[in-house]
Records
---
Amino acid sequence: MGTASALAGTFLFEPKPNDPIPYGYVTFWATPYILTGIGLLLTAAYRERNSFLRRSRFLVAAAAAPTLFFALFTLYLFPTFLGIYELWRYNAWVIAFTIAVIIGSSFRYGFMGLQISIQNQKLDYTLRAITSGTSILNHAIKNDVGKIRLFGEKIKSDAATGSPIRSSSCGTWK
């Protein structure tokens, strides 16, 4: 029975000769899904009891519903019933609106659980920590250079006088 109705539906919505897709058939199939999706978005937003989740759902509906509704007309209804095929080019403007809603709400309230936050770091504390660490490192390097210089002079003076050098490994005089 299901195959027969699908086959009958295919012959019922025979594509026009110049149509790239059978708009009548696709419109008959896609329109209820798009309208149901928009309805579900709006119903979920209105029925939500939690104010935080309600605002989040309204933002999702504000971003998605206009785009879906506009796309329904430009992609399906106008080509099917009016024969206007080129209005899909204006979908970019509605998508730009959707992106603006997503970005704007992401900074202010968060969008679909994601919130973008910009925080100024206190540069005064950061610079103070960097200079403190740098000064400690500089002091340690200066101490090591001083030790190297001191031991270098000691080795030179011992070599010049011919005094014995104590071996560090076995503790005996050479």
---
Amino acid sequence: MESDTAYSNEGHLDPRIAARLKRDNKGLVAAVIQQYDTHEVLMVGYMNDEALRRTLTTGRVTFWSRSRQEYWRKGDTSGHVQYVKGAAIDCDGDALLIQVEQIGAACHTGARSCFDAGGPLPVVIGPVEAAEIEAAETPNLARTTAGQAHALEMEMKR
């Protein structure tokens, strides 16, 4: 269980965050970049501990360039800036989700998303199973309880 003490990423990535990361053999973690309000997936980049620290503390996304072997901050040369709006780590610690306000294109090709530029792949669409349909149609207990409470409240007002 995590401490209630605030994280401190001053000078280095907080050890509690660093301990949760599952890095590849080059010390990197995949970072999925998502538009914060539409949830559109824009791109995937890679971060080491320092790139993540910079991202968490500067309000701008920083990556580790695997080809150039250096840090790069999205938008410094293109003007297509990513302003950080939120960050999360997945359950295994091997991927990050960075929510951003994307200014301009996210992809180096000039496309809004790297997945627009890459394009769809052919897939077989999986069937929805009866159990999934039933689960989706089963009323949520909290929603039912809230609805019942509202109905009772309306009845009492009469």
